[in-house]
From TrEMBL:
Protein name: ACYL-COA-BINDING DOMAIN-CONTAINING PROTEIN 4
ACB domain sequence ranges: 12-106
Domain of life: Eukaryota
Taxonomic lineage of the native organism: Eukaryota, Viridiplantae, Streptophyta, Embryophyta, Tracheophyta
UniProt record, GO biological process: lipid transport; response to light stimulus
Keywords, sorted A to Z: Coiled coil, Cytoplasm, Kelch repeat, Lipid-binding, Phosphoprotein, Repeat, Transport
Residues in the signal sequence: none
Amino acid sequence: MAMARSSSGPAYPERFYAAAAYAGFDGSHNSTSKVSSKFQNDTALLLYALYQQATVGTCNVPKPSSWKAVEQSKWKSWQGLGNMVSTEAMRLFVKILEEDDPSWYSRASNSISEISESAVDTQVNHYSKDEAIIKNENSFPETKTISTEIGTLVETQDKDVVSEVVGTVVVYDQWAEPSITGQPPKARYEHGAAVVQDKMYVYGGNHNGRYLNDLHALDLRSWAWSKVNFKVENESQEGQSPAKLTPCAGHSLIPWENKLLSVAGHTKDPSETIQVKVFHLQSCTWSTLKTYGKAPVSRGGQSVTLVGTSLVIFGGQDAKKSLLNDLHILDLETMTWDEIDAVGVPPSPRSDHTAAVHAERYVLIFGGGSHATCFNDLHVLDLQTMEWTRPTQQGEIPTPRAGHAGVTVGENWFIVGGGDNKSGVSETAVLNMSTLVWSVVTTVQGRVPLASEGLSLVLSSYNGEDVLVSFGGYNGRYSNEVNVLKPSHKSTLQSKITETPVPDIVSAVHNVTNPTRDVDSELEVGQEGKIREIVMDNVDQESRKSRGEGTSLIATLKAEREELDLSLGKEKSQTLHLKQELADAETRNTDLYKELHSVRGQLAAEQSRCFKLEVDVAELRQKLQTMETLQKELELLQRQKAASEQALDANHRQGSGGVWGWLAGTPGGQKRDDA
């Protein structure tokens, strides 16, 4: 998750209270039932927790009784936010509401004092001092600009070579806004952008909480915008309504064989799995690709990297707001999905991160965010061994961020924009993917589109020079501005200035991703290289000095060689020790993994046994109830039997008395005789 998002309208905290009222949090006792009727259970619980965090603060109430399942779930959700500040909770509340119900603000406009969008547009690139005091903790310093005939240039420290691009003076390693003609797209963020044949295509995105499905093209030769009219292939039968292109945001737009691939993305009615749409540039037609295999669950905010003829998809956030860190590969030749179970420790679940490929072998993942924090960690996936590693970064490591954009120029990875839930990131950073050294190219000032989240960044060329082109973003207001930066030779070499112990460019990444590399050979190459440098530095001196001085120099070199050999021996010994420790650690890790696997198996067996016991208990309870019913019926029959036996005994006695009386000549017998 990146810096807070919201559509145009009231500022915070007013916007939060409007969103809370719309969601059903009115402070009444039945407000929870109102919320649960509007949202799914997990969304309602998260909204409740954020509302409590924003209005009450950290959860300090006692844990409810286990008999109160609903109250306990609400308490756990609130408790899980920890010490999140109230302003951040407000922004996350509005963001989740916008993703779940993009049109909430327009529906609630009758009860909200709405600020017109035209008034927001007059705020140019900075807010007033009064607005900066608002408790959103997202204020920016005032923009410092240089007025020129070409628009606005942001001041930087470096003064490099100046050239001309389309009549616009652009300073190397500085961002500038070129003169553009044509009708620009609607302001947006979380859109997709890609370059095909000197045109930058922009598709979809989010504006004012609404998902978009329009397609625009910027000619990078004439710098003119145009809207692309397209058709959608209808796979339904004849007579049915025409097919429509589903609006989306948080998707990835990938150029491939004179086509554009739109992968995944958030939609109003999400599908169960990732959808891959293709735009044919020649026919201006959208269609949905048919894929095979087990497709990943639908999501947005993922990274999609084109490596050869495959797409590598990592992470993102699904329709239930759950963060992901799964890894999938789509083969574009067979259109087959493959879920990858890579070894090593993968990045933690996240979305809105960036990814790049180096040497057609390594996929690098940087930054991103969860529901409560942002990251600045770097992870590397070796596509040959399918192993995750987390190498050590060097140089000016960027601050944590999410919603940023990145593009590679050779072995350099440029990172622009993003946010950290408090403010936008102002610096443009570059990582040398061979040495893993960071450096800062330039820094913008103020609330400008480049210090935004959800912007796009593409690489183009003009007159044989590389040009970075950014578009859109959100930092308190939506943007549709275009900015360009021409990286100088200096910026692409800055990260190489810092010394690295690895001599080979490609092996730098390989070494940090392979802890069992041959350290001995590296040390020998390094030490021998130093000796050769010393000899070469003294060649000219030997030709001018006497034979005695040459002998002294050789003795000195021999002494240094001995010192280097001694140092090399120590390094080898230390290397052996480290290898042994690594082997021990791997053994312990293997044992722990086996133990964990065994415990999981035992747990599964116990769970299965518990389930069977629960079934047996239920059956016994049912039998017990049946036996109680039969017992009652048996008692009733016994009582009926006893009554019947008593009646039979009485009749029997009466019949027996008459016979014996007749035999004895009783009056009764006489009466019958008389009769």
